[in-house]
């Protein structure tokens, strides 16, 4: 059962050494907070670890403890392999990114995640799909493994909870989430500072790319779907990064009467990052999954190797099916 999975995970950490911790591609607050929480727990056991992401982790998470220990593999390649791996908040092995060259032949992966689309790719899998965040499972692991909570560990856990619940607003905000959050505050977490860094502060480039995105916003299927686009040329013109373009999909989703908000972002020509957000009944994880991605019922995504025009056709066709219109 689930409790024995948590015990297995704690034993995995206690019985081995020299770990590789992996956060998922396009890292968010949950995967980053959970990865750093795993690092802090390993430190308590006197274990060594290397913590990596395929690419860059947004600087807004720079307040998290041990953030400076996170390797950006695109910039700082690692030339050795690991046997003991901990992947956090990654729904499938693809979400770990380009990391397989770091795996020894006898690699054992501990897969800790909360996505309903998780395919249990690990040797050990601690999956609870009704957890609001992987950070919620990290809290349970902390308790099950008898780790010591302190301000640093509490900050990592709180940040994952805060970001994956959209600031304690989404429907995954359970009583348990609020109880953990309250307990983390007792360890000295600064909620105002963390919310400011993770949720409130926006860059100049974000506002510039927002102009382009709003210009492109269009309604389909009787205003039930709102879709916006960010072309590679928009990013180039404004100097905005994909990080600066984060959160734009909410402008599509939040409009009164809209059921599904979509953003299509083109980091480089020929690659389209699709974000899907549902307000009510439509399960967008199934749409994302059918396009090679995954996620949650109300927030999901995938990446298409196509032109912007093709991506728009493909996504709208899927939505048409699900909405029962054509
Ligand atoms: P976002 O639109 O913010 O990138 O992602 C929303 C949700 O969908 C997140 O929970 C994220 O983990 C999931 N997601 C986004 N892209 C992918 C993907 O390519 N594969 C999978 N499995 N999940 C994704
Ligand atoms: Mn995530
Ligand atoms: Mn998550």
TrEMBL record:
Key words, A-Z: Hydrolase
Domain of life: Bacteria
Domain DDH: 19-160
Family annotation (InterPro entries): DDH_dom (IPR001667), DHH_sf (IPR038763), DHHA1_dom (IPR003156), Oligoribo/pAp-PDE_c-di-AMP_PDE (IPR051319)
Sequence ranges assigned to domain DHHA1 in this UniProt record: 230-314
SUPFAM superfamilies registered for this protein in UniProt: DHH phosphoesterases
Entry's EC annotation: 3.1.13.3, 3.1.3.7
Protein name, per record: Phosphoesterase RecJ-like protein
């Amino acid at each position: 059962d689930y409790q024995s999975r948590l015990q297995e995970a704690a034993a995995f950490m206690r019985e081995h050494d020299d770990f590789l911790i992996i956060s998922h591609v396009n890292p968010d607050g949950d995967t980053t907070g959970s990865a750093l929480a795993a690092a802090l727990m390993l430190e308590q056991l006197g274990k060594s670890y290397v913590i990596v992401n395929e690419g860059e982790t947004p600087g807004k998470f720079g307040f998290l403890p041990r953030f400076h220990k996170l390797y950006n593999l695109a910039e700082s390649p690692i030339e050795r392999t690991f046997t003991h791996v901990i992947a956090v908040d990654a729904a499938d092995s693809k979400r770990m990114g380009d990391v397989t060259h770091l795996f020894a032949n006898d690699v054992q992966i501990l897969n800790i995640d909360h996505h309903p689309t998780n395919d249990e790719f690990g040797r050990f899998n601690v999956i609870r799909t009704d957890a609001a965040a992987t950070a919620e499972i990290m809290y349970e692991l902390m308790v099950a493994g008898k780790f010591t909570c302190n301000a640093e560990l509490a900050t990592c856990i709180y940040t994952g909870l805060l970001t994956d619940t959209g600031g304690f607003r989404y429907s995954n905000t359970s009583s348990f989430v609020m109880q953990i959050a309250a307990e983390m505050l007792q360890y000295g977490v600064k909620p105002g500072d963390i919310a400011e860094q993770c949720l409130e502060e926006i860059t100049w480039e974000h506002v510039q790319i927002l102009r382009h995105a709003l210009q492109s916003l269009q309604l389909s299927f009787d205003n039930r779907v709102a879709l916006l686009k960010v072309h590679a040329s928009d990013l180039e013109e404004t100097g905005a990064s994909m990080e600066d373009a984060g959160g734009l999909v909410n402008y599509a989703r939040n409009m009164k009467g809209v059921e599904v908000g979509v953003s299509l972002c083109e980091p480089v020509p020929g690659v389209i990052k699709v974000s899907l957000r549902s307000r009510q009944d439509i399960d967008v994880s199934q749409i994302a999954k059918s396009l090679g991605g995954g996620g949650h019922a109300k927030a999901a995504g995938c990446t298409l190797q196509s032109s912007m025009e093709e991506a728009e056709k493909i996504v709208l066709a899927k939505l048409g099916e699900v909405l029962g219109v054509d």
